[in-house]
Amino acid sequence: MSKSSSSQIITCKAAVIWGCGEPLKVEDIQIDAPKSTEVRVRMLYASLCHTDIIRAQGKEDPLPLFPRVLGHEGVGAVESFGDEVEGLEEGDYVIPTMLAECGACENCTSAKTNFCLTYPFSLGGLMSDGTSRMSIKGHKLYNMFSCSTWSEYMVIDSKFVCKIDPSIALPHASLLSCGFSTGFGAAWKEARVKMGSTVAVLGLGAVGLGVTEGARMQGAAKIIGIDKNIMKKDKGLAFGMTDFINPDDYPDKSISQIIKDLTGGMGVDYCFECVGAEYLINQAIQATKEGKGKTIVIGGGIKSVKIDYFPLLSGRTLKGSIFGGLKVKSDLPIVLEKCKNKEFHLDELLTHEVTLDDIEKAFELLKQPDCVKVLIKI
Question: InterPro entries annotated for this entry (predicted)?
């Protein structure tokens, strides 16, 4: 296989944020050449995830790092790569991943987790050697997790990319690098939803709709979607939701009680919290069946949560999840194959599109009730 390397520094445009709550500025930055195990990618599309908003606002961010180029959802083409990279060629389409899979460590050989110990999940915003491949005006720039997709080019370690079939619609591929895959995986791999079971989904954004699709494909008999935005009802139905709850319609009832009323007083087998709110996490636990109910927490944005103890003591399970429990090499290709075969309803997610120059508009669009996902065309 031919090897590609480039020592050339590329100057390109990227959306830079200089501090907590500051506006994004599309500025010229410098992208260094990839080192031995790294890939430089020409970005084509990116998308906006709730986690990016949290980092931009600096709210509940466990490690605020600035200046920074955000974005961890996206798709691009390989421009160059280091001499130790295997399995990639110039022009290959790839999506970034926040996790890796070595296939040999204790975690990678276990069916219980997708957290690789050899190439760990990092919040440090730098490459594995502790340096950055991006700079601006003499300042190093921090990544968002393993990459920065809100840029015309980025450098990422090859362990954190997944090659995709060129026949997959590129806007759809961008969504599969985090949000939708996280939700789908949570139902498929993390909860392992059983045929004929009952499911509740708190929050019908891209993650929640991914959960809904996954629960439908797993054969759940009842899938209850909960959201205060009435416009999410049609989206949920398109992905397989059977019942919709707007909590505002029940001012005298808790969410958990409404869910129990829909399930004969029993509660659901599985509840997925896709927002990241203390109240909803506790409601999710209480909405599951006593003795065997399982709650999966996927939503980000809070540092600490006070958990009501008795519902857990009553035999319920609470589990956290990153990337829906999906292993990058073992599971993500299966998700991509389903996308290629058009088994997902991803067109329902792509409601708005902006250019990189207009990325600030994406934050405003997300406040619109009809917005699910904003695609950034690069």
Answer: ADH-like_C (IPR013149), ADH-like_N (IPR013154), GroES-like_sf (IPR011032), NAD(P)-bd_dom_sf (IPR036291)
Share of the chain above pLDDT 90, in %: 90
Q: What is the dihedral of CA 179, 180, 184, 187, to 10 degrees?
A: 50
In the numeric block, the tokens 């110990």 are attached to 117
Q: Of 288, 273, 292, which Cα lies nearest the Cα of 182?
A: 273
Which amino acid type is present at position 118? T
- Token reading at 48: 């906006």
In our burial notation (b when 16+ CB lie closer than 10 A, e otherwise), range 124-134 reads ebbbbeeebbb
Q: Can you name the residues that pair with 155 across neighbouring β-strands?
A: 40
- Indicate whether 1 pLDDT > 70: no
List, in sequence order, every residue forming a beta bridge with 362; answer none if it has no partner.
none
Backbone region of residue 25 per phi and psi (left: phi > 0; alpha: psi in -120 to 50; beta: other values): beta
Residue 17's SS3 state is: strand
What is the pTM (predicted TM-score) of this model?
A: 0.95
Report how far apart, in Å, the C-alpha atoms of 235 and of each of 206, 222, 290, 370, 376 are: 10, 16, 30, 10, 21
Distances in Å between the Cα of 366 and the Cα atoms of 151, 173, 355, 360 are: 20, 20, 15, 11
Cβ atoms of 14 and 26 within 8 Å: the answer is yes
Residues 378 and 372: their CA atoms lie apart, in Å, by 19
Contact 68, 19 (CB under 8 A): no
Alpha-carbon gap, residue 358 to 63, rounded angstroms: 27
Enter the DSSP assignment of 275: S
